[in-house]
Amino acid sequence: MHGYAANAVLEQRMVEEWAGVSRPQVYYSLEKLSGLGLIRPVETVERSPGPERSMFSTTAAGRAALADALEREEWTTGRDRPRFLTWLALSWQARADVFSEQVGRRRKFLENELARQRGTLRAIKKETGHRFHEAVWMVELNLDQIRTELRWLGKLNREFPRRAPARNPQYVGEEKK
């Protein structure tokens, strides 16, 4: 397919829900992959409406490179660090009323995300026709993570009035003298 078609498929499949891929990245990636010989331009007999578009197909080297890349351990050993956790670590310096307000904003954001992700899941299941698909599993994991954080935010709200400074503020790795 060509870049425009690839972007249309990514938008239709709501790729922004589960991967950080932008329209410019698609075109940049096509150019880079072509230069490396991992995809190749293909001739088409069909004339597409609009501007001239280059169609691409994967090469054997491209499919092998992808298979090799998918075997790397780094896919399974990384962890995301949500901005909210950075905020939480610094929140002891915030005004008391700001803490509850920010937690409420986070809850509202997550509730909206939960509704949006449920819609995404319905669309994916409609497209795939079954629930045993990578996209279904990915969005279900995301939904579980959102529900877990919503429960945790409830706990945080209940415990916040009891918040206190550390009793033993030494750094964890510091040796006692």
Protein model, in words:
With 177 residues, the chain is mostly helical. Helix content is 59%, strand content 5%. The protein contains 7 helices and 2 strands. It has helices spanning 3-12, 23-35, 60-69, 74-77, 83-90, 96-128, 134-159; strands spanning 39-42, 55-58. Strands 1-2 form a two-stranded antiparallel ribbon. Helix 6 (96-128) packs antiparallel against helix 7 (134-159). The protein starts with a helix and ends in an 18-residue tail after the last helix. The relative contact order is 0.08. The mean pLDDT is 88.
Write a brief structural summary.
With 177 residues, the protein is mainly alpha-helical. It has helices at residues 3-12, 23-35, 60-69, 74-77, 83-90, 96-128, 134-159; strands at residues 39-42, 55-58.
List keywords for this structure.
single chain; 2 strands; two-stranded antiparallel ribbon; 177 residues
- Neighbour order of strands in the largest sheet: 1-2
Q: What pattern of helices and strands is seen along the backbone?
A: HHEEHHHHH
Share in helix: 55-70%
| DSSP strand tally | 2
Rounded average pLDDT: 88
Structural class: mainly alpha
How large a portion of the residues is in β-strands, by DSSP E?
Answer: under 5%
State the assembly state of the protein chains. single chain
Note poorly predicted spans.
Answer: none
Largest sheet: 2 strands, antiparallel
Count of helices?
Answer: 7
